[in-house]
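Re: that backbone. Tokens:
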């Protein structure tokens, strides 16, 4: 394993641990309903409120020195998980696959993959609302990497991963329809 693969593995495992902690917290109902509502309404473009900072300090990273971009990305992650709660995280349920299995529109999926900044926040809200309406949980570690990747090559890798999963499932569904 190369040193970059080792670093990625460590980074993914710590991100996975954080996502798992937050998901268990949401699933347990341990967060006051008012705070959950506040998390669901987080706006990545606005300064986050007390509930965001409590979550960050207690459950994500106590000593986090976040850039404005990281703060916005974490706001999208926490808001998305909160919108999908109580069942939001299912490790190994890859996002592209789940979206394709549930008929998420190809146009919306393409917009999601191309989105940046304010558009990403809007498409993320659409994505999580879609999944919540179907009662589908996804691998939030993958979605967190999607939102948090500041390195353009890492961000592109996550997008390619999601696209590959989405189009493999769509292709299989189309073949099934043709054979029916």
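Recovered sequence:
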């Amino acid at each position: 394993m190369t040193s970059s693969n080792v670093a990625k593995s460590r980074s993914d495992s710590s991100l996975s641990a954080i996502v798992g902690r937050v998901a268990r917290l949401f699933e347990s109902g341990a967060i006051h309903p008012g705070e959950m509502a506040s998390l669901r309404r987080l706006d990545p473009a606005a300064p986050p409120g007390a509930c965001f900072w409590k979550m960050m300090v207690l459950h994500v990273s106590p000593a986090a020195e976040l850039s404005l971009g990281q703060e916005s990305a974490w706001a999208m992650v926490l808001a998305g998980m909160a919108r999908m709660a109580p069942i939001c995280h299912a490790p190994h349920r890859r996002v592209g696959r789940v979206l394709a299995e549930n008929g998420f529109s190809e146009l919306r999926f393409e917009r999601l993959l191309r989105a940046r900044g304010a558009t990403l926040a809007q498409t993320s809200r659409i994505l999580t609302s879609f999944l919540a309406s179907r009662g589908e949980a996804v691998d939030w570690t993958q979605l967190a990497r999607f939102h948090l990747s500041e390195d353009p090559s890492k961000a592109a890798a996550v997008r390619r991963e999601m696209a590959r999963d989405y189009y493999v499932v769509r292709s299989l569904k189309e073949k099934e329809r043709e054979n029916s």
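Confidence is low (pLDDT under 50) at residues 1-10. The radius of gyration is 16 Å.
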